[in-house]
């Protein structure tokens, strides 16, 4: 289907471009959301007559989005989630969680603005893109941890999962005796004790 774009759409084109898209994409998304018009003669005339107003409105929205970008750019939100020992979350972090976290910090964003390329299903710090306007996007950091202490460590650059595995391995000391009876404690004999027994 041939359509006329009423706003810039990534990977499609800019305002006023006549592009060809799949019928379902046009009927289900672009046309109902007033992002495009069907490319027929009547609509082309209407678009050309209103082009200056459409471009002025777009410029106004872009200016507002650029002003808002200062409130959102570089923000970090902390989400506390339960996870397995390997760092896999029980569930995943949703767009709604990110929106709620940003709005608590006064960002004023909606679900449509968040671009989550793949679901967040592990612990760690993730960069998430926020489209405030088709021409204005910013990045925020999402810190997913099991506790506020872990979140603090992650924000300082510590790999919490790697540190946890090092701690598990370091639990065994040289005094560990694999032949000891259960409940027996391995104790190094001092020289004095050795002489006393002799």
TrEMBL record:
Keywords: Ribonucleoprotein, Ribosomal protein, RNA-binding, rRNA-binding
Start and end residues of each Ribosomal protein L9 domain: 13-40
Signal peptide range: none
Region (Disordered): 173-198
Amino acid composition bias (Acidic residues), ranges on this chain: 186-198
Superkingdom of this protein's organism: Bacteria
InterPro entries hit by this protein: Ribosomal_bL9, Ribosomal_bL9/RNase_H1_N, Ribosomal_bL9_bac/chp, Ribosomal_bL9_C, Ribosomal_bL9_C_sf, Ribosomal_bL9_N, Ribosomal_bL9_N_sf
One GO cellular component term: ribosome
Family (UniProt): Belongs to the bacterial ribosomal protein bL9 family.
Function according to Swiss-Prot or TrEMBL: Binds to the 23S rRNA.
Name this polypeptide is given: Large ribosomal subunit protein bL9
């Amino acid at each position: 289907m041939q359509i006329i774009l009423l706003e810039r759409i990534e990977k499609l084109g800019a305002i006023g471009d006549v592009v060809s898209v799949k019928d379902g994409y046009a009927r289900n998304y672009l046309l109902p959301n007033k992002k495009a018009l069907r490319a027929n003669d009547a609509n082309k005339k209407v678009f050309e007559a209103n082009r200056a107003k459409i471009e002025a409105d777009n410029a106004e929205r872009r200016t507002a989005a650029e002003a808002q970008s200062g409130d959102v750019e570089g923000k970090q939100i902390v989400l506390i989630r339960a996870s397995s020992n390997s760092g896999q979350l029980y569930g995943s972090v949703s767009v709604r969680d990110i929106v709620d976290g940003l709005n608590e910090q006064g960002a004023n964003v909606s679900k449509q603005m968040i671009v989550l390329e793949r679901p967040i299903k592990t612990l760690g710090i993730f960069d998430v893109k926020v489209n405030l306007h088709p021409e204005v996007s910013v990045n925020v950091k999402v810190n997913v941890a099991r506790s506020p202490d872990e979140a603090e460590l992650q924000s300082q650059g510590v790999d919490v999962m790697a540190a946890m595995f090092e701690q598990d391995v370091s639990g065994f000391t040289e005094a560990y005796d694999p032949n000891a009876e259960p409940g027996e404690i391995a104790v190094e004999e001092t020289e004095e004790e050795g002489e006393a027994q002799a």
